[in-house]
Amino acid sequence: MAGRTIKSVVLERQLAWAERQGKNVGPTGYLDKIEDNLFLPMSSTALAHFSAGSGGELLDAASRPAKIKALHSSAALAVNVFDYWTRHNAVPLAMAFGFTGVGEGAIREIGFERQYPTGLAGNPPNLDVTIRFGSGLTVAIESKFTEWMMPKPTRAEVFRPAYFPATAPLWSGLGLPCCQHLAESVAAGSVHFRWLDVSQLLKHALGLATASHGMFSLHYLFFDAPGSESCLHREEINRFTTLVGQETRFSARSYQELFSEVGTYATTADKAYLDYLGERYFRTARPAAHG
Q: Which of 193, 220, 255, 261 has its CA 20 to 30 A from that of 147?
């Protein structure tokens, strides 16, 4: 892989998949139609959520097609993995997240591009996927495909001054003092994360704590690939977990790990779904569905 980044390898594999499927790919890696990038047409639930979100995923722009048409689209990855379960028995997904799939452990809703306002002006960041369980717990998922695979500049401003009012610390006021300390350290430039988007996760935690009254778990789901970048990324995930994991109920895993866990509980009814994901994204980690 000399001279090639892990991001370029992942993108090459997505292009190879599209070519095997006979799909027309534009010069910048976009497909002709949204449906070309999805296992199933988007459900009415997902379509409504994406249309209401502020990310503009479904809209063509003057400079590029709709973002979700890109082979490297994180939104398309999330829809391909999660939207299937809005129309099928979601017990395998619930069990992959450590719940029984019945009663309080049953999935009540799967959402996309949800926003949890922090009380500050402007649009809060979009949460890629939310899963609400019968217990009232919301598992809020920040999803990454290739976004994490290039290091972020160390001098970029990651928080507006409004996040740090002098008289009322926002995170501490909601019972998140460790998040408050980390946010202040990142903003001051005394703590650096180059592979993990810590400011985004902290903003999500602030919004979730404001809206969910503590009934949330922040989950980080990422597409992994072998390489030194992956090791550095995981080191930062572990550091973030140590610093604020307990008060945000933070957990992290790769899409490959989730795919394997879902496959453990899936049945033969889910074979086409598993085959699509395995062929497109997880060729070395395809589980076998069972009856």
A: 261
Please tell me the distance from the alpha carbon of residue 97 to that of residue 139, in angstroms, as a whole number: 9
Provide the Cα torsion 212, 213, 214, 217; round to 10°: 0
Length of the chain: 291
Q: Supply 248's token pair.
A: 């945000």
pLDDT in tens, 50-100: 998 777 899 988 888 999 999 999 999 999 999 999 999 999 999 999 999
How far is the C-alpha of 77 from the C-alpha of 222, rounded, in Å? 10
String of DSSP letters for the chain = -TT--HHHHHHHHHHHHHHHTT--B-TTSBBSSGGGG-SSPPPHHHHHHHHHSSS-TT---SSSS-GGGBTT-HHHHHHHHHGGGGSS--HHHHHHTT--SSGGGSEEEEEEEEE---SSSSPPPEEEEEEEETTS-EEEEEEESSGGGSPPPTT---S-GGGS-SSS-HHHHTT-HHHHHHHHHHHHTSS--SSS-HHHHHHHHHHHHHHHTT-EEEEEEE---SSHHHHHHHHHHHHHHHHHHHHHT-EEEEHHHHHHHHHHH-BGGGHHHHHHHHHHT-TT-PPPPB-
d(CA 221, CA 8): 20
Q: Are 50 and 288 in contact (CB under 8 A)?
A: no
Q: What are phi and psi of 114, to 5 degrees?
A: -80, 150
What is the signed CA dihedral for 27, 29, 34, 39, rounded to 10 degrees? 140
The token pair at 139 is: 């598992």
Of the candidates 117, 107, 114, which has an alpha carbon nearest to the alpha carbon of residue 85?
107
What ranges do the domains of the chain cover? 6-280
